[in-house]
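Allow me, if you will, to draw on your knowledge of protein folds for a short while. I have a record of one protein: its chain in single-letter code and its fold written as discrete structure tokens. I remain grateful for any guidance, and I place the record below:
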Amino acid sequence: MGSQCLILLLSLTLAQAAEKDRPKFTPGPISSFPAQQTNGKVTVAARVFVKEADLRAAFGKLNPNDHGILPVLVMVANLSGQTLALGDLRVEVITPDRRRLEATPAADLRYLSGPPRPNMTPGPIPGRTPRLSRRKDPLAAWEIEGRAFSARMLPAQESASGFFYFQARYRGGSRLYLTGLREAATGQELFYFELPLEDQ
């Protein structure tokens, strides 16, 4: 029993150390977002991430745009007296030519490029088995899922933020369309939110 406790304690310590090594990312106050809309006492704000400095602050060396993924940071501020249910949240980008693009779940991004092909490099000694190269998909980086929007409930007077990911390039004149916010107690859906996505 004592060895199991020691192993558990060691794994928790290592997890905390790994978390400390990860760079911090703060979305900033909702007032700093370039696009905002308030319905009742709920405000939704959005910021598209295409600038190198913004991407580096959020994703480190990984630039999702290089892999055809557009990250959009969304913040929801609930200043109402009701808890909001976010489980049915639906987020889309509407392009200037009116195409609707649904957000891709963060957990699915690592599979977009398909399984990596083994690199059958011949071994250094003839007759030996070739070495397999184990190339990791760049979109499997912890920042993708770790910084995704994950809130399912939002208590009164609180806010939640995170990224939604779209398989698209940024196009000026695009808009973010968000539906599915409900009052948890009544199930009543809030009015939709539609925000411009301008690169600012």
Summary: The chain has a mean pLDDT of 84. The CA atoms of residues 25 and 59 lie 9 Å apart.
